[in-house]
Design brief:
The protein is mainly α. The protein has a single domain (64-290), classed as Orthogonal Bundle (MetI-like fold), CATH 1.10.3720. Helix content is 75%, strand content 0%. The protein contains twelve helices and no strands. It has helices spanning 2-40, 62-70, 73-104, 110-119, 129-147, 156-180, 185-192, 197-208, 210-226, 229-234, 243-257, 260-290. Helix 3 (73-104) crosses helix 9 (210-226), helix 7 packs across helix 8 and helix 9 (210-226) runs antiparallel to helix 12 (260-290). The protein starts with a helix and ends in a 6-residue tail after the last helix.
Amino acid sequence: MKNTLTRNSRSDKVLKVFIYVILIALAVIIMVPVLWAFVSSIKQDSEFYGSPWALPEGIYLQNFADAWLTANMGTYMLNSGIVTVIGLVLLLVVALPAAYVLSRFKFKGNRILSMMFMAGLFININYIVVPIFLMLNNGDKVLRDIFGQPILLNNLFILGLIYAAMALSFTIYLMSGYFKSLPKEYEEAAAVDGAGYFRTMVQVIMPMARPSIVTVILFNFLSFWNEYIVSMTMLTKPGLKTLPVGLMNLMAAQKSAVEYGQMYAGLVIVMLPTLILYILVQKKLTQGMTMGGLKG
């Protein structure tokens, strides 16, 4: 019996060491490229001709100024921020009430609506971006005759609307599962106090679902902020391009100009907001993925 316990203890230790080694290796694989991009962003162009792993001789912040002003990364960041905020607001306004109704109420057509939203999970926006573009282009032909100018293409609000629509299925799926885990006693208590359905949803259910809502916001923020194909297709005017499209244009230009410091500075500008947001909401994100509806 004692030998068996000793053997099991050794096996547990070996397994734990193996898990730690895998986790450390994954952390290194993730962190090294990020740190390398940050280090490269403060190098002068002449330093790239030596060893790429060498530390910078000094801190050369002019790369960020060049990327921000000369390469218009500041304008691209503003456009990305506007589109992302519009997309998130529209998404939450539509998805949260829809998920609440589908998960808490039984009515005719509930199952069909749920299946339609779930079917949206299997549709990749990149595969239907051309039909969406043609639809908006045809709409602009009609609107051009009425208003004298196109409205649907090269429109940050329309791009935000497309982003919200493409994330609707996933958000409703995620929030519906969370709402279903909440005990109905909360709503019954609110009804006894005279609260209607809307007030119950806003004042009772939504505060309880805050960790899950934060999770949805973070995931969709990353998706909207880093999206490239739809933005490149729907926004053709240079002054309306979003940050990923602007970064790709910058990388294509700087490869021929051999200004690698400016290119990496642009890459850091793209990554920085997502890293800061993740650090700020990391605790809420963990809660949203692990906690249940009722605290014990």
